[in-house]
Amino acid sequence: MNISHIEHIGIAVTNLEESISFYEKKLGLKCYSIEEVADQKVKTAFFMVGQTKIELLQSTDSEGPINKFIEKKGEGIHHLAFAVKEIEGALPELENKGVQLIDKIPRRGAEGLDIAFVHPKSTKGVLIELCENKNEINYCIV
Ligand code: ZN
């Protein structure tokens, strides 16, 4: 498996607008994209920090995974996303090594990336997302 860098860090929040305001007004970062991902029942906001992004996630549904996470653990870091090459090969490779996957085949995530989650039971407690950008689209800071 070929991990190139940390693509983003996902952070669960209860109020996206308030959280964007914190990152912009207190930390001086600029939100460059807000996107709803219906499949994951979330609204996301993105900030670029070097080549790594911060992804804020607010649930759009009380039954959504982000809402359930916040009910259990409160707001905070939700997942770590690694950029990989050839995600279709990385998933069976992990599974062959005995790592439990949440997604055996990649699905479409925010920013049009192909993504798959790895179960935190298999990763010492961290929800890991693998993602690959096959779109050749540059999302840059506005
Ligand atoms: Zn993510």
Could you please describe the fold and organization of this structure?
The chain has helices at residues 16-26, 65-73, 87-96; strands at 3-13, 31-37, 42-49, 52-59, 76-84, 107-108, 114-118, 128-132. It is of the alpha+beta class and 142 residues long. It has a single domain (2-132), classed as 2,3-Dihydroxybiphenyl 1,2-Dioxygenase, domain 1 (Roll). The chain has an 8-stranded mixed β-sheet. The radius of gyration is 15 Å and the shape is globular. The protein starts with a strand and ends in a 10-residue tail after the last strand. The model has no long low-confidence stretch (mean pLDDT 93). It binds zinc ion.
Bound molecules: zinc ion
Number of structural units classed as domains: 1
The strand line-up of the biggest sheet is 2-3-4-1-5-8-7-6
Q: Termini distance?
A: 33 Å
- Percent strand: 35-45%
Low-confidence stretches: none
Classified in CATH, the superfamily is: 2,3-Dihydroxybiphenyl 1,2-Dioxygenase, domain 1
Please count the helical segments. Answer: 3
Order of helices and strands: EHEEEHEHEEE
Task: Please tag this protein with its features.
alpha+beta, 8-stranded mixed sheet, 3 helices, binds zinc ion
Q: What would you say about this model in short?
A:
The chain contains 3 helices and 8 strands, in the order βαβββαβαβββ.
